[in-house]
Amino acid sequence: MVDLSNFEAENTEAHKYFRNIIPLLLADHHYRIGYLDMFPEASIQLRKKRGIECLAMVNVHHNEEKMTDYQSRFSSTREQYYTDRDKAMKWILSINE
Fold it and tell me: Using CA of residue 57, residue 61, residue 66, residue 69, what is the dihedral sign?
């Protein structure tokens, strides 16, 4: 779960840092986050750091408009976008049921 509820970057540089670090962290665990599709130039190498593979991810953020947009554009059976942390947790825990 990537939970950025109530996170607002102080400036553009901080925003860029988090926009980059999360996809890189997930790529280390063989997962390409869907919102990278917004950046055709984005090239990311997937690997399995320490043999760990991410099977699904859920992104939580307080911006309802953004999460609704991302849910419609980038969601899949392995990736969801929420504003509600409890619903996000319920979804991610249901993946292996």
Answer: positive
The model's pLDDT over 71-96, given as tens digits with 9 standing for 90+, comes to: 999 999 999 999 999 999 999 999 98
Answer for the pair 60, 82: CB distance below 8 angstroms, yes or no. yes
* pTM given for the model: 0.85
Which pair of tokens denotes residue 58?
């859920």
User: What is the arrangement of strands in the sheet containing 79-82, beginning at the earlier edge strand?
Assistant: 2-3, 57-60, 79-82
Residue among 3, 8, 47, 5 nearest 26 (CA): 47
Copy the structure tokens of residue 68.
Answer: 């609704």
> Which residues, 6 or more positions from 92, have their beta carbon under 8 angstroms from its beta carbon?
1, 56, 57, 58, 80
pLDDT bin (cut points 50, 70, 90) of residue 26 is very high
